[in-house]
Amino acid sequence: MAAVLIRTDTPLSQVFSNDFWGLPLSDPESHKSYRPLVVLSFRANRLLHGLWAPGFHLVNTSLHAVVTSLYCWLLGRLRLDWSTVMSASLLFAAHPVHTEAVSDMCTNSSYIYVAMSTPCTCSIDQCLLHGHVAACTAILYSYS
Question: Where are the domains of the chain?
Answer without folding.
Answer: 1-51
